[in-house]
Amino acid sequence: MFMDQKYFNLLLYVMTGLAVIVFFSLYFVTAGYGQFRTKRWGWSINNKLAWVLMEAPAFIVMMLIWGGSGFSTAAPQIVLTGLFLLHYFRRSFVFPLLMRGKSKMPVNIMLMGAVFNIINGIIQGGGLYWFPQTDYQEGWSYLSHSYAIVGLIVFFAGLAINWHSDRVVRYLRKPGDTRHYLPTKGFFRWVTSANYFGELTEWTGFALIAMSPAAWVFVIWTAANLIPRSASIHKKYVEEFGKEAVEKRKRIFPFVY
Fold first, then answer.
1. In whole angstroms, what is the distance from residue 70 CA to residue 77 CA?
2. Is the model's pLDDT at 77 over the cut of 80?
3. CA distances (Å), 56 to each of 29, 99, 130, 205, 240, in order?
4. How far apart are CA 207 and CA 191, in angstroms?
5. Which letter, b or e, does each residue of 192-213 get, where b requires 16 or more Cβ atoms within 10 Å of its Cβ?
6. Which DSSP string do the residues of 187-239 spell out, in sequence order?
7. CA distance 89 to 97
8. In whole angstroms, what is the distance from residue 27 CA to residue 39 CA?
9. How far apart are alpha carbons 155 and 30 in whole angstroms?
């Protein structure tokens, strides 16, 4: 452990405040990766490599904190650590290999993402092993609480939506095709950013299981990043495919927004 609890709590407050700033800022400045990448975002590198370098720090930091804490075997901590590592193993080492095409990511976007993932790995690992504010020592009985059961269901529902939505987007184009297409399968029937809806659902489920301030800070950050991004994507789809094709769908939350 390299942080006192008062500094850890301060980090939670600072990150929450920054999330609010990011949320409003992203309605005015669209992060330049994916379909929004432009030359003004600077030097770019291979998208697959960038995703590994950006996402892997979260996986590595969680493993280091878990190992440094003696590889705790308390059931709630093991389950929560496993869910976190499951997401980030796929996002870091599987998702990039599944990518098609030769797109690139600006290095500054990659670095900002990597810094966030390092900090978030510290926050989530710290919330589980350094300063747990929930009685994880209940063992398996902890996971029988209604909030933990609901959280597990919500997490895996979000995971399934996220993975399926990624697959839908991945197969929109045939090899060599560079055109944009409007995704229509799965949850894309109801929202234009179904993958984001799935990811936000995932981490909400995670927070319901963890019942810790650290986990809810992650939900706040996920929302602060993905909700404005979904608005930008929705607007771009309307411009490309027309209101009639897009406007019946919401941005990220089915039937709501």
1. 12
2. yes
3. 26, 16, 21, 22, 34
4. 23
5. bbbbbbbbbbbbbbbbbbbbbb
6. GGGTBS-HHHHHHHHHHHHHHHHH-SHHHHHHHHHHHHHHHHHHHHHHHHHHH
7. 12
8. 20
9. 28
Tokens in use for 239?
């411009």
Kindly state the percentage of the chain with pLDDT values over 90: 76
Percentage of residues in the chain having pLDDT higher than 70: 98
CA atoms within 13 A on the CB side of 180: 11
Q: What is the pTM of this model?
A: 0.94
| C-alpha to C-alpha distance for 65 and 128, rounded to whole angstroms | 9
Place of tokens 């950013």: 193
| pLDDT score of 1 | 63
Residue 252 structure tokens: 């990220």
Phi (first) and psi of residue 85, to 5 degrees: -70, -35
Segment 202-223 shows an average pLDDT of: 97
pLDDT, mean over the chain: 92
In the predicted structure, residue 199 carries a pLDDT above the cut 80: yes
At residue 147 the predicted structure's pLDDT band, cuts being 50, 70 and 90, is very high
Q: Where are the beta strands (DSSP E) in 42-108?
A: 44-46, 104-106
